[in-house]
Amino acid sequence: MSRIHSRDTKPELIVRRYLFSRGLRFRVNVKRLPGHPDIVLTKYNALIEVRGCFWHRHPGCKVATTPKSHVKFWKEKFRRNVKRDALHEEQWAEEGWRVFIVWECELKPSVRTATLDNLYDGIVADATARPAAYGEGEDDGAGMLEAAEDPLEINHENN
Asked: Please, what sign has the CA dihedral across residues 5, 16, 26, 37?
């Protein structure tokens, strides 16, 4: 498992290249958000998780098989992965983020264009809504950047 990478995977790079080519700008693996989501589009208040079908147990996918050896280990490993994914999705939703999940099997060449076009349409569909900025919301500030003071609103009367 040491050769399994958690970032810059081929499916993730496919999604990032597509989004960039469509003019969307984003951050990758933002450490200040729970779970370090793969792609963060703050302008659209959206997070994108690119998940491998095997590791994250894509329901109904033929790739989401269980190895025949060490079955107990693998079942526990997969259970923890799915539980962690659900927790992160809940945390992001509580912070006001729109969450998009792209599965590895949805990026096969035969369905890639449709998947990516649907993703783009979903992201920009609600572009008129004001996204929550870092540091806003009912959160206690844990894991969020503090909003900087606007230099134009500083009172200069005493100078």
From this structure: negative
In this prediction the pTM is 0.75
Strands 27-28 and 98-103: unpaired
- Output the CATH code of domain 10-131: 3.40.960.10
Starting at the earlier edge strand, list the strands of the sheet with 27-28.
27-28, 39-41, 46-51, 98-103
Burial group, residue 118, by CB count within 10 angstroms (0-12, 13-18, 19+): middle
Pairwise CA distance, residues 115 & 148, whole Å: 38
Give, for all 159 residues of the chain, the pLDDT tens digit.
556 666 789 999 999 999 999 999 999 999 999 999 999 999 999 999 999 999 999 999 999 999 999 999 999 999 999 999 999 999 999 999 999 999 999 999 999 999 999 999 999 986 655 545 444 444 444 433 334 344 334 344 443
